[in-house]
Amino acid sequence: MENFADGGQNLLLYGATGLGKTFLCSCIAKELLDQGYVVLYLTAGQLFRKLEEIRFSKDEDGEKEEWDKELLEADLLIIDDLGTEFATLFTASELFRLINDRKLKNKSVIISTNLNPEDITNQYSDRITSRLREYKVLKFFGDDIRVVKKFRK
User: Fold this and answer.
1) Which residues, in sequence order, are bridge partners of residue 137?
2) What's the domain count of the chain?
């Protein structure tokens, strides 16, 4: 966190369900918010639903430009549960645009997913996977903490 101000620090967190990826994203978001940074935290489903709403509706009040500005200017964009959204050419295109535009602006992104890198390539594209290879990749492994907690009781 000490070097966050330098910008462009990107993480890809992947692994099975229940290993703490979302929890880690939440902890990072809280720490940066406490330091005064602007953090946008969205599930992939929320992100792409909102983008679709805005792209395909009449934009009489400039909401599209404002939303794009927020997505591109926030100090950190967290996309949680990538791969759970309904994958289309639109979602792949928007994901590439966000990743690429934030890279050009030296803005940080954290993506959590249950997909492994090969699955990401299959679901999205080589262009997206190529950009994600520049991210620091952390693989989570172990037992689903929800299951462990349930059986400890």
Assistant:
1) 12
2) 1
Give the CATH number, domain containing residue 66: 3.40.50.300
Per-residue pLDDT of the chain (153 residues), as tens digits, is 566 767 768 999 999 988 999 999 999 999 999 999 999 999 999 999 999 988 887 766 777 788 889 999 999 999 999 999 988 899 999 999 999 999 999 999 999 999 998 899 888 888 899 999 999 999 999 888 777 777 776
Residues 28-50: b if buried by 16+ CB within 10 A, e if exposed = bbeebeeeebebbbbbbeebbee
What's phi and psi for 52, nearest 5 deg? -65, -45
Domain around 22: 4-152
What DSSP character marks residue 56? T
Nearest Cα to Cα of residue 91 among 120, 116, 64:
120
Predicted TM-score of the model (pTM): 0.89
Helix (H) or strand (E) holding 151: helix 145-152
